[in-house]
Amino acid sequence: MSQNESLPVSVNQTPSVERWLRVSAAQTDALAAIKQRLGIDIVQALKSGLSQEGEFFVYPLTFLSVEGSKKMISKAIFALGREILVSLEPDPSPKPLGVAVSRMQRDGRDNDAFEAFAIVLQSINDATDELLDSLNEELGEALVQTNAVLNSLESRERDFGVSDVVATQVELGTVEDLLSECIQTQLQLALVARQTLARLPQEFSHLKQLYHTLIDDIEGVEEHVHFVHDRVRLLQMSNNLALSVKQNQIVKVFTVLTAVFLPALLISTYYSMNFAYMPILDWQYGEPMVIALTALLALLPLIYVKQRGLLR
User: Fold this and answer.
1) pTM value?
2) What domains does the chain contain, in order, with CATH numbers?
3) What beta strand segments (E) does the chain contain?
């Protein structure tokens, strides 16, 4: 009887495969059986990080996935031995691990533990790539919004406010946080894949090419993450530019208004002085002349601003 045949199987409402035993923290009986028969305390391994317990190599992994319209962050612990792969998973099971099971069952053959682990890592890597596609779509919407804001600075069809720019900036900040998690995931995947490749027993040497291909795929997705991250940074810069220009436009409006009403303020200040004698007060055309002079002095700044193109 092999090791995995003596342990409880079937976890998280998802069937296990021959060489992959899946458990959750809530399954205390299964965890106790694993500790007794395999000599590994996988719950304690959660606190240890990358480590080795007996013949088992313990790998904690945090990864992301898209489930419906939600972006999920999951953490699982994998203990890889010569004959069996054990995983401690959240409940419900993350989508990438379910995909890995489907791929193994679709093959219709008994995957050994190291090959099963490679398929798990590949599924997690593919989930990151799927998430990037989803984020790219969101960035496309953010780009449309940013272009609309920038175009509105020259067009009068629709005027976007500061709140529109700020809302887009908040969305970009959320995407940037997810991308930071993606980078961390890819670094973890690459490290785990390389360490597993270095520790491949002689009887599994035929899997070296599989792990080399897996590492190349992980690095390819990591480059994709950096590309999307650069795109987010560019959009953030464009939004900051739009926000700055929008704020400058607001300041410009108040500056022009101040320039228009300043002559009237100066004239009213002059005529409010208590001089003993002011000849224009006795002139019958004094009031129309002051009104005309005030209007002329108010128009002069507007004409100057318009000719200089400062109202655009």
Assistant:
1) 0.73
2) 1-111 (3.30.460.20), 249-307 (1.20.58)
3) 20-24, 51-53, 56-67, 70-80, 85-89
